[in-house]
Amino acid sequence: MTNIEHITALVTGANRGLGKRFAEQLVARGAKVYAGARRPDTVDIPGVIPIQLDITDPESVRRAAELAGDVNVLVNNAGVSTRAGLLDGAFEDVHLEMDTHFFGTLGVTRAFVPVIERSIAGGGGGAILNVLSVLSWFHPASSGAYSAAKAAAWAMTDAVRDELAPRGIHVAALHVGYMDTDMVSDIPADQKTDPAVVAELALDGLLSGATEIIGDELTRTVKAQMSSPRA
Ligand SMILES: NC(=O)c1ccc[n+]([C@@H]2O[C@H](COP(=O)([O-])OP(=O)(O)OC[C@H]3O[C@@H](n4cnc5c(N)ncnc54)[C@H](OP(=O)(O)O)[C@@H]3O)[C@@H](O)[C@H]2O)c1
Known about the structure:
about 40% helix; seven-stranded parallel β-sheet; alpha/beta; binds NADP nicotinamide-adenine-dinucleotide phosphate; Rossmann fold
């Protein structure tokens, strides 16, 4: 169990999709919530504090860390899916995936670790949740750039967890398959999970001290098969 009595959270990409569900549920749990968005005017969630945050822009990240100076829980949710293949996809898209999921998430984490440390200096713990994917573990050619970026973010999550454990900050990963958001609007509804259900499960996992949160059955199956040789 993480020792967090009152949550002050920052959620990245909180204006739509899974991030919006995280922000809504944190408010419902009594948290103070900063809703990070590239365009804060698109945040439409009662009870949150919208702040401008482009996770790939170091100046925007620096300003957000200054403005949201009392955060003790960081939800690294913002992401993109270009579906670029590694060999034939546009190289800018491959860069965008890495810039967002790996460097963007790491940049926000580096900026907010000192904020969380200051917030918990008087007692209590802090936490970071990184939204990863089933594709951190399964790497189809059709989403090669996305999968590689999520796999890199998975490795980063594990290493950062080790670095932060002695400093009182718990780090967890959410791995999940298709959710019903704009990112996969072309996928049939019966293959997608409700992002509100995933957000609730992920927050429960984070606050109970889980390190690896599995969001759906597909991801559970892929995880179970990871020790099998690749076909
Ligand atoms: N949907 C799925 O099936 C699925 C499955 C597994 C994991 N995920 C992961 O879940 C997370 C949320 O995705 P979603 O499904 O909610 O997708 P979504 O509906 O497309 O929302 C993506 C969010 O990320 C924001 N974002 C993108 N780049 C950003 C940047 N540079 N700085 C700040 N915000 C940025 C977007 O902001 P704008 O409105 O400004 O574009 C938007 O708020 C992502 O990490 C994604 O990889 C999704």
